[in-house]
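Teaching note: in complex prediction, the entire set of molecules is handled at once rather than each chain in isolation. The prompt given to students was simply: 'Predict the structure of this complex.' The entities are:
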Amino acid sequence: DIQMTQSPSSVSASVGDRVAITCRASQGISSWLAWYQQKPGKAPKLLIHTASTLQSGVPSRFSGSGSGTDFTLTISSLQPEDFATYYCQQGSSFPRTFGQGTKVEI
Amino acid sequence: QVQLVESGGGLVKPGGSLRLSCVASGFTFSDNYMNWVRQAPGKGLEWVSYISARGTITYYADSVKGRFTISRDNAKNSLYLQMNSLRAEDTAVYYCARGITGAEEYWGQGTLVTVSS
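The expected output is the structure of the full assembly:
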């Protein structure tokens, strides 16, 4: 199975800050990497798929980069509604696997 | 708009069974592969199972293989998860999700399964 490791596990930030979350796969997954945002009590929301493709309706302050084993989600200017937990997921093979999550908090 | 509505969750004793359903609307259900993903209380996301658009290919997480069965009825726009031999560690919110190029594009609101005596 492919292991996905996110870092950091949590980050304290302020409105307007630039935040970067990294995700490392235990083996190469090409660009088969997705990022999700989840708020308490809600279902996850797809932000980015195929490593860097912004899902329709997602603000452009979110961006994704990377390929192979190392990936990054960047929020260019943190907004109040961005405080949430973020997960990466590999879509290269089964079983699909998620990172452990990164909580972005004030 | 795309809607996925799960149902069938509840309280069940260890060793018991439960069948989850997910009714889809707003898109051509038979064109899309589907997944079940779960989240234990206070924990991260765990992928559970996949089914191809026609239902001919399925995959399972090792943690549920042999106990859970995914299926679909394209005529009814419905996805199912039959869960047998339930364990305490299966306690979670279960989400159905529509797939797109290696990701889960749309998610339902989830249904809570609690396994406890």
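Point out the following to students. The interface with chain B takes residues 1, 32-34, 36, 38, 43-46, 49-50, 55, 87, 89-92, 94-101 of chain A (CB under 8 Å). Residues 41 and 66 of chain A are 30 Å apart (CA to CA).
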